[in-house]
Specification:
- The protein has about 425 residues and is of the alpha+beta class.
- The chain has a domain of about 170 residues: Peroxisomal Thiolase, Chain A, domain 1 (3-Layer(aba) Sandwich), CATH 3.40.47.10.
- It is built from 15 helices and 14 strands.
- The strands form 3 sheets. Strands 1, 2, 3, 4, 5, 10, 11, 12, 13 and 14 form a 10-stranded mixed sheet that branches. Strands 6-7 form a two-stranded antiparallel sheet.
- The chain is globular, with a radius of gyration of 22 Å.
- The relative contact order is 0.20.
- The model has no long low-confidence stretch (mean pLDDT about 95).
């Protein structure tokens, strides 16, 4: 890349757990609630931004191209181009990566990039046979034809399907995302007890981060139209314990599966923005960079084992940078499922996998638990799929600043059999 690219600031909304009905915010609402305080504290005007890039998976019908709608509502001006990207769980990071490449290539100097998702607003869709019945009704002329078609009506036509359910099922393998995790538990011998223990730790870590105020630097409150203030991630369960999780039934492969509602990521609404800048923009607006994006990587694999995407993408980053696992101070690996994270860690320790799949001379090694997801993750925090990739990158910067770390990797698995990773270096004093 020809020019260095810096992360100068970022914010996110609280991640709000979906609770059976549409939440108070649409994706654009979240993006605007997140972006306004971020832009207000900058020394440049919203109109100075060259591009707005937003990750969003479940775009609602009233907000086509939510990036553009959000950009206009944020006051970026009619002249500012804005577009939405979608690569499932990596969409927020894809937005940042696209901005990174535009700036590195000289096409832009200042970009607002992130993600927004309101999974509680996932649309309800009709069954295919109901759609065909409605189409037949529309196509019939005359009362007799319509009457005959109407007689084919079935009560189940009135029962819609949540679109998210279809979205979380891979159309190639016909496996749900949870089922792909069950495949990994067999490949790497991940036990239910290990998965539950990891989930408990995720909740404990997030609860501690909230109590210590470690998230204040990245969080901005969201205000609903009825005046309700949302100022914290509300999916955390500080009292989570292995014996409680052990009582939950497997969701995806009953009765013997390992993935449950307790050790899987939560269905959540949330948004995250970052501001990326070139050196020219730093000088022009007097910006102080917090971190530099050194490299990024997207990798692909069999959709049935999509959870191993972080291993492939991160390993390619390490190879290109002539780095090893131990050279990375902190990791943010999105917690789609507890067993999926554990499988990734196991894969790096497996000599056969590392030789046969990663092309290494032997096992890559291990990542100490105190260096990965230090403040919890999607199991306790939630996983608004379009925003999570940006959230883990922003929090990685935040955690590196707090802990005095120099280098980190943010990475996630992606439904459909892909993975993304971003290598980030802190630029503050002592980095």
């Amino acid at each position: 890349m020809s020019r260095p690219v810096y992360i100068v600031d970022g914010t996110r909304t609280p991640f709000l757990k979906a609770r059976g009905s549409p939440g108070p915010f649409t994706p654009v609402d979240l993006a605007v609630q997140c972006g306004r305080p971020l832009l207000l504290r900058q020394p440049f005007a919203a109109g100075d931004i060259d591009q707005v890039i937003l990750g969003c998976v479940n775009v609602i019908a009233d907000e086509a191209n939510p990036a553009r709608v959000a950009a206009l509502r944020l006051g970026c001006g009619a002249q500012t181009t804005a577009f939405t990207v979608q690569i499932n769980c990596g969409s927020g990071m894809q937005a940042m990566d696209t901005a990174y490449r535009y700036i590195a290539d000289g096409g832009s100097d200042l970009v607002l990039a992130g993600g927004a998702e309101a999974l509680s607003h996932a649309p309800l869709v009709l069954r295919q046979d109901a759609v065909e019945w409605l189409a037949a009704m529309q196509g019939k002329d005359g009362p007799l034809g319509k009457l005959k078609t109407a007689a084919r009506f079935r009560p189940e036509f009135l029962k819609p399907i949540v679109g998210l359910e279809r979205g979380l099922t891979d159309p190639i393998t016909d496996l749900g995302m949870g089922q792909t995790t069950e495949v990994l538990t067999h490949l790497f011998d991940i036990s239910r007890e290990q998965a539950d223990a990891y989930a408990v730790e995720s909740h404990k870590r997030l609860a501690r981060a909230q109590a210590e105020g470690w998230l204040k630097g990245e969080l901005v409150p969201a205000f609903a139209r009825d005046g309700t203030v949302y100022d914290h991630d509300d999916g955390v369960r500080p009292d989570s314990a292995p014996d409680k999780l052990a009582k939950l039934r497997p969701v995806f492969e009953p009765p013997y599966g390992k993935a449950t509602a307790g050790n899987s990521s939560q269905i959540t609404d949330g948004a995250c923005w970052t501001i990326l800048a070139s050196e020219d923009a730093l000088g022009k607006y007097g910006l102080t960079p917090r971190a530099r994006i050194l490299d990024s990587q997207w990798s692909a694999l069999d959709p049935a084992i999509m959870g191993l995407g972080p291993v492939l993408a991160s390993t390619e980053l390490l190879k290109r940078g002539k780095l090893e696992l131990g050279d990375i101070d902190l990791w943010e690996l999105n917690e789609a499922f507890a067993a999926q994270v554990l499988a990734c860690l196991a894969a790096w320790e497996d000599e056969g996998f590392c030789r046969g799949v990663l092309g290494l001379d032997g096992a890559a090694g291990s990542i100490a638990r105190e260096r990965i997801n230090v403040d919890g993750g999607a199991i306790s925090l939630g996983h608004p799929v379009g925003a999570s990739g940006a959230r883990i990158a922003l929090h990685l910067v935040q955690a590196m600043e707090r802990l005095g770390c120099a280098r980190g990797i943010a990475t996630e698995c992606i439904g459909g059999g892909q993975g993304g990773a971003m290598l980030i270096e802190r630029t503050g004093a002592g980095a």
